[in-house]
Amino acid sequence: MVRHLLALVLLVTACAQPTGPIDKVGGCDGEVQRIPEEAGNHVPLGSFIEWSTNPPATGEHFNVWAGWDRNYANLERGYYVHNAEHGGIILLYNCPDGCQLTVDKLIDVVRTMDPDPACDAPVRNRAIITSDPLLPPGIEVAAVAWDTIYTATCFDPFVKTFARQHYARGPEDLCTDGIGTGGVFIDP
């Protein structure tokens, strides 16, 4: 009985942890982790979704995605995981006391991205910015692409490299604009 219980505890612990390698990158204790792909099932808006990583980068997500080239105050994760599935880059921040300088730097990252020829105006590229208060403690900046996450304790220019390396690498490579969920359009 004890042996079976121990095996069950080990199995649950192993399933709850990301299994991809972690690479140290840039400054600010930056890390990039590749996540084994999970089924990208669509679920109705507002559904409870449990992800295997924080922030999420694969798995179930809402059946619609958010509009591109926008800065959101707090976009639900179910939207932005769908954006990642379409090859987008999602730039996240968590600053309970405010961090306008960090947000401005993330906006500059989006503004300096090369235009995507697959996108139709007014959309320039597949990028969004949003706060995410659910990021792990101590993580101020993160980036998500399908199956890959970047986390850091502060803004580091490496986030530009992450965006360039992982852009348009989702299983559904398309730039159709998402639904209007608010957010402020990021002018080039």
Element layout with pairings:
Elements: H1 2-16, E1 22-24, E2 31-34, E3 42-43, E4 61-62, E5 70-72, H2 77-85, E6 89-93, H3 100-111, E7 127-131, E8 141-145, E9 148-152, H4 158-166, E10 184-185
Parallel strand pairs: 3-4, 5-7, 6-7
Antiparallel strand pairs: 1-2, 2-9, 5-10, 6-8, 8-9
What's the overall geometry?
Answer: globular
Count of the separate structural domains = 1
State the distance separating the first and last CA atoms. 62 Å
* Strand percentage: 15-25%
Order of helices and strands: HEEEEEHEHEEEHE
The residue fraction in helices comes out at 10-25%
Low-confidence stretches: 1-17
Order of strands, main sheet, comes to 1-2-9-8-6-7-5-10
Q: Give the number of DSSP strands.
A: 10
Give a quick account of the main beta sheet: strands, pairing sense, barrel closure.
8 strands, mixed
Task: Describe the protein's architecture and organization.
The protein has 188 residues and is of the alpha/beta class. The chain has one domain (22-43, 52-185). It is 24% helix and 19% strand. It has 4 helices and 10 strands. The chain has helices at 2-16, 77-85, 100-111, 158-166; strands at 22-24, 31-34, 42-43, 61-62, 70-72, 89-93, 127-131, 141-145, 148-152, 184-185. An 8-stranded mixed beta sheet has the order 1-2-9-8-6-7-5-10. A hairpin with a 2-residue loop joins strand 8 and strand 9. The protein is globular and about 35 Å long.
Which key terms come to mind for this protein?
single chain; 188 residues; alpha/beta; 24% helix; disordered N terminus
Structure at a glance:
By secondary structure, the chain is α/β, with parallel strands linked by helices. 24% of the residues lie in helices and 19% in strands. The longest helix has 15 residues, at 2-16.
